[in-house]
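hey so i finally got around to running both of the ones u sent me last week. sorry it took forever, my laptop kept dying halfway thru and i had to restart like 3 times lol. anyway pasting them below in the order u listed, first the sequence line then the structure token line for each. didnt double check formatting much so if smth looks off just lmk and ill redo it

first one:
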Amino acid sequence: MRASSEPRAQAEQSEVQSFLAACRARVDEMLDALVPAETASPVSVHRAMRWSLFAGGKRFRPALLLATGKAFGARAEDLLQTACALEMIHTYSLIHDDLPSMDDDDLRRGRETCHIRFGEATAILAGDALHTLAFQVIAEDERLNDSTRVRVISEVARAAGTPEGMIAGQAFDLEAESREVTGAELELIHRHKTGALIRAAARAGAIIAGASANELAAITRYAAQLGLLFQITDDLLDVTESAEVLGKTPGKDARSRKATYPALYGLEASITRAREVHLDACAALDAFAPQATLLRAIADFIFHRRA
């Protein structure tokens, strides 16, 4: 970890928390405008979409997109719709991930999961609707030129799908249940299931801002490590924190014999690995250090997060 005095580190963490709160407010306002109202027909689907979308998530992926775009000089207004689209895709993935046929969970973001509240069929439709709406939102974003829209749609689709993205990661995760996995297999799962969408958030922000090829390569290295760091810390929190802190069922990965870092390596080795990945993420930012203060602080924030 880079040298930093305790007061400065605390100030940076406070800055990140303020930035995340501001992003959450802007993203929530835009999401409210983009997503059909609960009273719009079909009411059941729209209520379910909003139940999951406005359940108090951190909006980390949209915030990372906004932070990256800001680092390369983009205006927040030009980034906001794509940021919202990423949150729609993330929320759809959580709805489907919680289904009985997948992770079978009944608690998400501190309240009932979508299928528990509205039934399995409606939850599936709500997830599908959020997924498709996300691409409509990007395609209809008139703040972006046609070329940029196509690049961003391609970027997000690749990260959400297969063989490079989130769907592939979910499949790898299901295939790994109740069997021993290698360290390489575990990292493959995490880099796809969680990391792909985080990587896309950073890359999309850089693309919209007009980052150079070298800058995009550097931000890709940063985001790839940040995504892995996010999941390692998530694995650690699952075995160290309560349901009240996490907003979801703790210890479920172990009971389901999921492939996780603590299960494979133990707590201490997992913490060491998180530290290594955090350092790698920060090192990738050296290529454009003057603009990277917030992005570096975000990596610090993820490394030290408790929920």
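and the second one:
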Amino acid sequence: MLDLAFETSSSTGSIALGNDKVVVQAIEFQGPQRHSASLFPALSRLGIPRLKLRRIIVGIGPGSFSGIRVALAAAQGIALVQNVPVVGISSAYSVALQMKDVARLGVFADAKRREAFCTSFCNGELEKATYLIPMAEIEEHAKQFTLAVSAEPLPSIPKRVYPRARDLLALPETLSGWVTQPPIEPIYLREPVAAK
């Protein structure tokens, strides 16, 4: 059976159909449109209504909360109809898979409010789960890594690497980072402004 994966945490979004052995089809979308405008036509092209899925994987960031929420809503709707589970995983694992030969990899994302997210990996293995740093310290923090990357422009992080849905399909089910219990939500590391 096949898994469906969503990755919409950055300005380049994607969906993929396959499993840990093969990617049957992958579609990327980007540009001025929001992911909500691109996601559903892409799902139609995959032929989702005709397919029986095993599970649905969603990259839960860190990154664009609205992009992640769109993917989660779509995933939950499809899962309800197909009676399959939705699981989440940090989008940074996709980047780590693409850069698995890097001794120490820092995956950065803009956390807004003058802060940045950082997730660190050592040769593709999680070293430290996502944490916050002040944006003013990003340059000094990035020096701790063999390579520092981000999907979107950030000060002192010139290398761009986008998370991809196809990589989420390849992640082993034994990873400790899977979120399997509802509600599956984007990675939050602080209270919303409205809660303060």
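quick thing i noticed on the 2nd:
The first strand starts at residue 2 and ends at 7.
anyway thats it, ttyl
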